[in-house]
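Appendix B, Record 12. Input sequence as logged:
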Amino acid sequence: MLKQFTRSASAILVGFTIVASPLHAEESSELPQLAPEIQHAKATKRLVSTYARNHYVKFSLDDDLSQKIFERYLRNLDFNKHFFISSDIESFAKLSNLFDDALMTSNVQIAYDIYNLNLQRREARLDYALSLLDSEFDFSKAGDKFYYDREDAQWAANEVELNELWRQRVKYDLSNLILAEKTLDEAKELLKKRYERSKKRLSQTKSEDVFQAFMNAFSRSIEAHTSYLSPRNADRFQMQMNLSFEGIGASLQVEDDYTVIRAIIPGGPADASGALKPEDKIVGVAQGKEDMVDVVGWRLDDVVELIKGPKGTTVRLEIIKGSADSKAREVISLVRDKVKLEDRQAQSKVVVPDEGVASGLPIGVIEIPSFYNGLTQHVRALITELEQQNVAGIIVDLRGNGGGSLNESRTLTGLFIDSGPVVQVRSANNRIDVERDVDGITVYNGPLTVLVDRFSASASEIFAAAIQDYQRGIVLGEQTFGKGTVQRHKGLGRFYDVQDNQLGSIQYTTSKFYRISGGSTQHRGVIPDILFPSAIEPSEWGESREENALPYDEINRANYIVMDDYANVIDLLAAKHNKRILQDPEFAYILEDIAEYQRKQEDKFISLVLDERKTEDEVNKAQRLERANARLKRLGKKPVQTLSELDDLPDDLLDFDPFLDEAAKITNDFIRLDKVAQHIESGKNSD
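Logged structural output:
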């Protein structure tokens, strides 16, 4: 698994020097000289060892893999080729076969050498961008363009070429602000602050950031969903899976060097106190009675780390109230508590599709944003609530659901079937386990549809595939993402470790999912029974486009009994659906937008001629206004004259979801066709 080598890798790594031409970075740079920390050697050793012993993919730590890691690491540091020049890349190329040696010896200094140079290059580019703000810009220069997608472009040959790229980038940033109704002077001042903040954040880069970047370059070079999580990111992952954390219950963001309250989470300490409001700025944090720590200009994750803490402990926040002209500061004391992330939980509602002449049947909708721990019990309660509201059918909405717990996907499926296999899982040693629902209880046996999109992945695909294979319900929407692999989350720390610094954790692929019908969900995903219009071509985005993704394959079918035969029903529903969307103005907008998106797919640039941008912007605004007024007319409301007037309308008036509306109409048709079929069957039996 690990290659044998006869030379002293550690001597090579220590003795190697990166030679790269300076690009006029400021001599007074405050950039840190980052180096591996003591815990990183141990983390590297354990990470490599765990992958070698337990990963689904059997790999060799050799020069071929080293080259892959090298190329991915460079892409991660400079994806659009805006910082390095070709001579930098040539200098780095001498390292390309040493990344495997670095991993085997747990000496990752070469990754830090490249990262440090990247920081210098970024600082130099930001200095150049700041200098350009003193220049004159000609926004009428014909043919001037900003190339926003340079993934496949060549590296700039020299500083002159790089300067031209940055001239375009700065001009693009300025034009965006001018289109947002800023004067040129105001736009320059805003950009100056933005670039200066970016420089400041460079100086706040930590050794942990470099280590994570390098370990992920290695991990993703083995397989697309293998990754390393720094200690802080590991904590966040666990919070998302549990939908809870201990803290004050506020969502934060950074604006102009300030940590600003973006939202207050209902039921948390901040909400209960009534003292914190959105737009308040946090300028200081103190633990209990300790001294206040000034946090202006800090990285957001560092501020969050100070504010978080165990339940029952006290944190004091020094804040400036949200008003822009407020200078007064006040100190707020909060007792930390467990905070539930309610907005990430499953939610339900009832919709009644409009059928023109008459209203349709009441349809329950259960929106599931992720497969978090406890999801099944939550959905069980939502089903009970919906049945009490006499819904005629249920839509399970999995759009945007990237997955989560495998066990929850199994138990959730069990709510809709009595018992039986749900998914097959093949491990690295080719052992196949069948995950089953065994309780013999169906919580909901009524009409069911499942709504998915291209962002539905992993556990979402297991559920949708099982419902489709059993023909327990009908799947609607877009072809799903196609992530058919199982990851294990494992901390690198051990109970006997004595160092204070944590090692972080890893997610690595251990198995592969297969439908009970035998096909993998990998690459292909789930193809809905009724496809909705989509701007996304499955061949252009999804698992099949992920580098180092595992292939599609098949195993034997599991032993299960199909619950119904929907073939003829689906044909009838699809015909009704197709006829309906051809007459639906909302779908006409969607089809127009898809055509426009596809027309622009080949363009990898944006015009820097301001009049052209303004004309395009005016056309887009006119289209938005026209569509908004058409919607208002259909709702029997008065039209508006300007887009700004829309802000005065009720929030939910134009908050329209045509895909959910169409899913409800299909479900409505499904229920009625099913009732007709039952009536016919009943008549046959009585004969």
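Residues 658-686 form the longest helix (29 residues).
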